[in-house]
Amino acid sequence: MTREERLLFCKQCENQKMDLKQGIICSLTGAPAAFEGTCDDFVDSPEKAALHQSHASPEVDGSDTVILSPEELEKYRSEQNLGLGIAAALGTGLVGAILWATLTVATGYQIGYMALAIGFGVGFMNRQAGKGIDPIFGISGAIIALVSVFLGNIFSIIAIASDELQSTFFETLSIIDFSLLFQVMMDDFSPIDILFYGIAAYEGYKFSFRTFEKA
């Protein structure tokens, strides 16, 4: 058995304890579990299993979790900066929306994949600046990603209109009828747009969390 397979049992066992150097160890032996198949000393403890679940943070590759001790959890929480994370995410989202509009005018196509890039960028910058591990970082990242993609769509429509009218972006913005703007968005809306919005929100959420290397 691998250590990961044994840990699935240990995390639910009453006899486990946390060692800052070795990770989860057996309180009876003072060493990491070494059993094969089943452990004769296993005592089920739903409370400890729930505790470990609440202390789980995202792994770098997104396929596993790293267990943090209460001390580590408190340390990383003290390093969080929600305001800075949101500011960085908002700035990235705005830049992404403007870039999307610029590419739309340059290519003549509204490239939907830009929504995915915006979602990733928002989440990544939220994580880098905010160093968050609490759910609020993911929630804010998802919301900012959605708003940024929405703005990207609006900016693209205005940019196309300004190109056709041979006027500047801000001149077009000052005279445009927003009721018509939203009507154009609805007319152009397709099921694939829902997918892009959904993936962007997921990326904004997932990539907003601080990641940790496995010991």
Strand order of the largest sheet: 1-2
- Helix/strand/pairing category: mainly alpha
Show unreliable segments: 48-63
Count of individual beta strands: 4
Nearest-integer average pLDDT: 82
Alpha-carbon Rg, integer: 24 Å
The coarse overall form would be: elongated
Portion in helices: 55-70%
Pick out its properties.
single chain, 215 residues, mainly alpha, 2 domains, two-stranded antiparallel sheet, 4 strands, 62% helix, membrane, transmembrane, transmembrane helix
Q: Can you give a write-up of this model?
A:
This protein is mainly α. The protein has 2 domains: 3-78, no CATH class; 82-206, no CATH class. Helices cover 62% and strands 7% of the residues. The protein contains 9 helices and 4 strands. It has helices at 3-10, 46-54, 70-78, 82-107, 114-130, 135-165, 169-175, 178-188, 191-206; strands at residues 16-19, 23-26, 56-58, 65-67. The chain has a two-stranded antiparallel sheet with strand order 1-2. Strands 3-4 form a two-stranded antiparallel sheet. Helix 6 crosses helix 8 (178-188) and helix 6 (135-165) packs across helix 9 (191-206). The longest helix has 31 residues, at 135-165. The chain is elongated and about 80 Å long. Mean pLDDT is 82; it is low at 48-63. Keywords: Membrane, Transmembrane, Transmembrane helix. The chain crosses the membrane at residues 82-101, 107-124, 136-160, 180-202.
